[in-house]
Fold:
Amino acid sequence: MSEAKQLLSRQQLAHLLASARFRNEQERITGVLLYSNGRFMQYLEGPELGLSKVWEIIKSDPLHNLVVTGAQETIYLREFDQWSMAFRALGTYGMSHPMHLDSLLSGRLSENMKATSRPIKELLAFWKSHKGQDAF
Structure:
């Protein structure tokens, strides 16, 4: 989790997401990024070396403030294996785009989904705590 040093525009979020997706593809990382009013929650999965590289990039990114590591666990099946970086944002701009991605995350992170790991539980907690705000 982290906080942005300032609220991000649509263009800034799009650039951030494109960079994350490219980097994650290079490192064989999959996951999801949630954004709500300047706060980020990210779930990453993949090979340990790739995760270490991506984590170092995130920590040194001047966009982020107060970067905090959440739960870490060994997994045997990926939760977001089809997405180099799925994305869902809540906040000021309206529904996230594209809508099929929003539907995917809504299903994955639904109230009825049984969290199988501590990191997924943290992701669900972030999702639920910001869900009542205007959807982005």
